[in-house]
Amino acid sequence: MSVTTSLTRPEKGLLSPAESRPSYTTDPKHGLFGAFSDLKTANASDKPTPAQCLAHLTLLEAFYRLREHVATTDGLYGIYDRFREQVWPSEDSNSKRTELLLKLREKRWAIHVTKAERRYGTWWRKIRTDRSSMPGQHALLGIYENFDVGWERDMLTFDKDTLPPLDYLDDCIRYGLLPLWNAGLPLATIDSCIDNRTFEYRAGDDAPDHFQTTFGLVWNSIDDSQTLFLHCPHCRQPVQIAWTTLTAADFWRESNLENHGHGFTDPDFKMQCPGCRVSITHEALRTQKFRNDCNALVEKNLPMPGTILNNKAQALSISLSSLDSPLTRRLASA
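The chain above was modelled as a monomer; its predicted structure follows.
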């Protein structure tokens, strides 16, 4: 089984600067593709080798092509290219149509990135609660193979001393998962899955089934549910929420700019819980996350996020007893 990133060719100049590039042919044993075909990514040094940099660039190109594919898939997440003609019916409005088309495509990608972040959260919770599923370099691909960009903060790190992904390191320390941090990014394994000419990503035959069985997620994020399920922060009842409510042309008219949408990926996200009738917003979810962190501190002595490292990845001299205050106890019991 293979997973490929097949692009729908967008209109020239829209999210695709590669459209105007000339084509090149090279001897596969020489030149650019020759350099990619036999990368030696193993390295004991802290500094990246030229081969590792090439492997990383290959990965970034695969991400770029995924972005192109998602953004130009007409109708994805209920957002259609035809909205531009419905909003700007006059043939004299080509510039306005082009501007709106860009916004529609950016919205599709924004939704996809948000979904990736949620999927990364599912992966992380599984890893931290089930130590027996602690991944080695091959098992780590369960998240990489689907281009779950929640991992990009680690992928984009060449040198942990100059650009530390602090949140990831902080979480690894708090949950005792430093072996996961020390394993680093399996560039050699990732690079072996990317076609060096087409930059298509081809996973192993067993990878999709393993990913779905282990994490309970559909392999391809595009095939995942078109709605989100989360728990009401007040009554904990499961609530079904749309990723976006901007799925009609009228929402994209200039006269309706004050309507920013009320879906989970929209700026004015708001959903009334059908059980307790409390309004669920991003602010309410952030508050619940803070309360959960307070609970973990009081009940499990788990440090609060952001209390382990400073902005230079240096350990902070803060004791757990100083964080376990009457205030945090009141917040945890609220």
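The mean pLDDT is 75.
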